[in-house]
Amino acid sequence: MSANVKEIEGKDFEVEVLAKRGVVAVDFYSTECPPCEALAPKYEALAELYGADIEFVKIFRQGNRELSDKLGVRSSPTVLFFRGGEEVGERLTGGIKRSALAKELDALVPPARAAAIHASERPVETRCDVLILGAGPAGITAGIYAAQAKLDTIMVDVGLGGGNLTVTHQVSNFPGFPKPQPGYMLAHYLLEHAKEAGVKGRFAAEITGIDLRERTVVLDGVETIHAKKIIVATGSSPRTIGVEGEIQYKGKGVSYCATCDAKYYEGKHVVVIGGGNSAIEESLFIARFASKITIVHQFAELQANKHAQAQAFANPKIGFLFEHEPRRFVASDGKAVDSVVVEDLRTHEQKTIECDGVFVFAGMRPNLERFEGQFERDDFGYVKVDEEMRTTVPGVYAAGDIVSKRYRQMTTAVSDGTIASIALARDLAA
Description:
alpha/beta; FAD/NAD(P)-binding domain; 3 domains; 5-stranded mixed β-sheet; 11 helices
């Protein structure tokens, strides 16, 4: 730990924080906490920069619950800021970005001093054998194989790793697990495996520069990583459907993640858009909370697997509106969605469904915004690769949901990551 960061106990809080006339940053952390592990190197690096002006302390939240409860600190990590014993600024929690922490610190010193601190910052140069962009199943598997081949491997993720697994209620048919598994637990197992294999992580990172042909990536505007080989495994995100009100009310009654938001609809009526595996399987999860679910699907039959269909048809909470499409998400108070206008595709008549929220499950899109013009892609925007996952950019491979292929499952992502790492290891040895 940096010499500029002091670990204290709850009993020392009065003296070490509240009694100080200056500014103190306080990091409440926990053990076995991925967001805490992601924050630690950023917190220490910024303590080196701002240490002459701000004191930095850490408190073990699990061992100081009385103080945590008194301050209303409910999750780890949580960073608080104090000036003259009074809390100031915005509390930061979860997957804290370096820029967000620096922004709060800048606000606690004079503008000229903040500018001088940033001017004094020195860039960091890091070199490795393999750089993996994305820490979902494909990226993690690639990392495991690369690290076990004794290649110096760094894995970067803008989140905390795990990809879409972290927001997937249950994963079925993953080999070795006869029963469906919680997505977040599979993500945890994968990340722990990568760590054990020796993969180095950069999580909750901000990618501020990419040059694939030079195989360099800049993180947080500070660290430039030079790699011999790169694997791009940035995964996919929910596809929007372009309905009026969708973007306007995203997070205000329009959701794409049942694991994240179903709990907010206890005893309420929810509309689900879609009829594929995600729509039906996630509807079954939402039914644990909602009192009523109306599934709106554009076709006359569901496209989900037969087992999920049978469960949905047997659930008394779930109803279906086939051959209909949404046309407008409505918030009568202008704040949150309270109805959906749908159109009958046979008669073209429109009607309004009153509800408390909407979940959209209309497929996924590849996360390739940062790579415009750098890869050859198929007609749907996915990256073309050869049989060993090589892209058209020399030294760069792709794996997982971004790859042009017929099937996208967790098992196929794991396969892609395996192939990419074995291929690049051989390419490096050639």
